[in-house]
Amino acid sequence: xxxxxxxxARQLMQKVSEAIFYADDLKLYLDTHPDDTRAxxxxxxxxxxxxxxxxxFEKRFYPLYAFSADCENDWEWLVGTWPSQIMS
Length: 88
Fold this sequence. Notes:
3 helices, elongated, mainly alpha, single chain, 88 residues
């Protein structure tokens, strides 16, 4: 993944969206072609990349998913700018 220090929230969110879309697309293909080992390797790499993109975004900005948030003391995972606000 590119150096995320200079990437804006919008740019990094675009990377997250693309990575997740690609992994989901491969998943759909594997649903109908479960014996395609090349596609499985591609999916594993795509999933790894998607996780890295999400982690990079969350580390720099805010949690994208409730299960990523630190909610030990209170329910504050919604703090920050929503992805739809970034992309518009």
